[in-house]
Each structure stands twice: as structure tokens, then as C-alpha cells.
Amino acid sequence: MPDIELAPGLECLTRRVDTDRFGPFVFEVGVEAARIKLALQRAEDTHDRFIASPFSQVANQLEREVVVSSVFGTNTIEGGKLSEDETANALMLDPAQVKEIEQRRAVNIKAAYDLSQQVARTAGWSLNREFILEVHRLITQQIPHPNNQPGKLRNNPKHHITYVGDEGHGGRYKPPQYGRDIDRLLDALIGWHAEMERSGVPGLIRAPLVHLYYELIHPFWDGNGRVGRVIEATLLQAAGYRYAPFALARYYLANIDSYFTLFNTCRKAAEKGQAWPNHAFVEFYLEGIRQTINTLQDRVNQMTALLLFESKLHRLLEEKRINVRQYTIVSQLLGRRRAMPLDEIRQTPWYTGLYLKLNDKTRQRDLRHLREMELVFLDTHHNLWPGVIRPQNIKPLGKKQI
Q1: pLDDT tops 70 at residue 6
Q2: Which candidate in 32, 169, 328, 342 could, as Cys together with 261 as Cys, close a disulfide (CB 3.0–4.6 Å)?
Q3: Class of the 322-386 domain?
Q4: How far apart (Å, rounded) are the C-alpha atoms in residues 120 and 108?
């Protein structure tokens, strides 16, 4: 586990910035090392087990699923209306053919993810202004907004005040309004992150802290949440973590009230001079990483089991231990990744075609054989399951099958 004994030199990692109009702004690690160590250890251990998994055969499919899920999650947090299936369909479109704003939002996030992955793989890369501006440009391009300019920092005109948050999530917060203050604070955030990096602060600590302070600066008119989550994910990817950095968006969506409230909780704790003001957000983040990686591990196990099952099915067909009809039945169930009611199966063209010239006895024998070999399961509600999914309420074998 990375060394997080930061307490002796903690004051060296605090940076105060005196702005022109906003007042003093303080960056600090703000976590209690002794208390955070267990959460960090659990997250690290979970990640170590995950990367030791034999998931090379399913890596591409896992990455596609993570991208769709995370684009859906981060977009929905900010008010996106697409369902997860609609998000997947949008990401398959040629960007030049995207016309609908909701689809554009999803495609833009994917473009920012692509940039994130590219820079995270670049040796020696560190967080910089150009990257942040480009992420914002990609995320907000061709999306109408009365004030936002893609890739341009916010500079509020007089009497046009930006507020963040609401009373239901800890209150409204007035971030810096003056462009010069925002510009100065963004540079300070980048410099402070570089200082943490040089000091050996683990990526699992740096990423949420940068996310937290970035959102408090709130440097753009639109897209701040999406940009902040991409920055956070990029820092974690650059530190050697795979899949989880973007998949974490679903954890934030599932815990959206806590996610929004914690920004204000930490801000208010710092304003009151409380010790370790950022601890709650970092702890929340580490628990999210742990849960996210466990979910990914479960999905890898499912996909690996499916590959092994499909390989077994092919082998049984080649060895003539099952016939083409039986192979087709199981393959159709696998393609749906779910159970099918027997009545529904009976009415499908592919099934009626299989037994068009065969009698009921043959149908019964085929199904019984599949059940005996546990290539399919029949439950007590007369649903047929592919053998890779074992239902709890399996119907005992009997004479009447289907």
C-alpha cells in the first residue's frame, strides 16, 4: 500500500491563494492519515485482486460496458435524459451525424473520455491547464447555453451571479465570480496537485481532492461536474488504475444526495476551521472505489463464466453429445441473457422451425437431455434459463418438459 503518513509534513501541502475579489482560498489535504489508512488499504487490496483476475479475454467487452455505463451515469447526474440503452446507441453513431442535443451530450463525454485515456497513458503526463480547457471544450461543444463558451473560463459580468448547490444538499455556495480570480485559482490547483504528486500523495487521495477543489472553483459556466469527474478519473488512470476511474460515475449517481452534500460539508468544515475538513469526501470516494471494483470483478466473473460455457457448448456439439437443435435452443437463450417463458419459446419462429417435422416425443427428449446436462434450467414458473445462470427455484425433472 502507498505510504500516506502525511501528518508530519501536512503544512507543506497547504496552499493559500489571495484573490482580488473572492478573498483567501486555501487548498489543503485535510484528511486524517491514521483514519483514512484502513479505507485506502481496502481500496488498494480490492484493486490488487481485480488486476490479478484473468480478464484479458473479456477486457474489450468490459471496457465498452464501462464506457456506456459511466457516460450514462455522469450525464444523468447533470440532467441528461437518455436511458442507458439510448446512451449505448448514441455512442455508436458517427459524431458528424449526431443532431439531437441529448445524443450530443453523450457523444461529447465519450470524446473527453478518449482524450483522458490518451493522456493518462502518456509517460510523464501531469495535470495542466491545456488539458482542463480541452476537456471542457469537448464536453460542451455544440450544446446551447446562454453564457458558456467551450474551452473558455467563466468571468461573471456585474449583477450576473453564479450559485452552486441547493438547500437540500447543504446550501447554496457562491464560487469565485471574477475571471482573474478563477484563472489564478485554477493555476494554483494545478500547482498544488503537482506538489502533492512530488510529495508522494497516492492517486487515490489526490484524485478526489482535486475533484473537490475544482468544483469549489467552478471555473466554467456549464459542464463543471462532467469536467471535474473526467479530471478525477484521469488522475486515477495515470496512477495505474483501470476501468474503475470512469465506472465510479455510477456510484456517484447511486449516491447522488451524499455526493452533492459532501461538497458543502467539506467547504463548511474548512470555513469553520475544523480539523481534517476533507476527510468525509475522500472516505466516501474510497468506499466508492472499493464498491465499484467489486462490481467490476463480479461482471468479469460473469463474462468469463459465459465464455467458458460457450466453449463447452461448442465442444459438446463437435463431440455429438448434443445435436444442432439442442445447440440452437441454448444459443438463443444465451443471446438473450435471460430466461424465456415456455409459451414464448413455443411461439418463436426459430423453435417451431426446429421441430416442424418432428414429434412431441423428440421435443421432450431434447429438453430433458439439456436439463440433465445442466445446459438449461427450468424453473417452477416454467421459464427456461441458459445454463450459465442458475435460478433458485429449479423445477425437478419429470416426464412433461415442454
Answers
A1: no
A2: 169
A3: mainly alpha
A4: 18
Do the annotations mark residue 226 as ligand-binding? Answer: yes
Q: What angle do CA 334, 335, 341 make, to 5 degrees?
A: 70
| Cβ atoms of residues 310 and 372 within 8 Å | no
Task: Read off the C-alpha cell for 333.
Answer: 437463450
Pure H helices in 199-255: 203-217, 224-238, 244-254
229 is in an annotated binding site: yes
CA atoms within 13 A on the CB side of 317: 15
The mean pLDDT value for 363-381 works out to: 94
Residue 254 to residue 103: CA distance in whole angstroms: 22
The residue written with cell numbers 503518513 in the block is 5
**Is residue 3 scored above 70 in pLDDT?**
no
Asked whether residue 228 is marked as a ligand-binding residue, the answer is: yes
**Do the annotations mark residue 224 as ligand-binding?**
yes
Using CA atoms, how far residue 303 sits from 54, 62, 308, in Å, is 11, 9, 9
Residue-range domain boundaries for the chain = 7-300, 322-386
Q: What does the pLDDT look like over 20-43, one tens digit per residue? A: 999 999 999 999 988 899 999 999
Please list, in sequence order, all residues whose beta carbon lies within 8 angstroms of the beta carbon of residue 57, skipping any fewer than 6 positions away: 304, 307
- The CA distance from 363 to 354, in Å, is 9
159 is catalytic: no
285: DSSP letter? H
Which residue in 47, 211, 218, 279 is the catalytic one? Answer: 218
| Location of C-alpha cell 412431441 | 360
Going by the DSSP 8-state scheme, the letter that residue 25 receives in this structure is: E
- Is residue 244 within 8 Å of residue 287, measured between CB atoms? no
- Segment 100-149, tens digit of pLDDT: 999 999 999 999 999 999 999 999 999 999 999 999 999 999 999 999 99
Beta-carbon-side half-sphere exposure of residue 97 (alpha carbons within 13 Å): 6
HSE-up (13 A, CA, CB side) for residue 263 = 27
The CATH number for 7-300, chosen from 3.40.50.300, 3.40.50.150, 3.40.1190.20, 1.10.3290.10, is: 1.10.3290.10
Mean pLDDT, rounded, for 90-99: 89
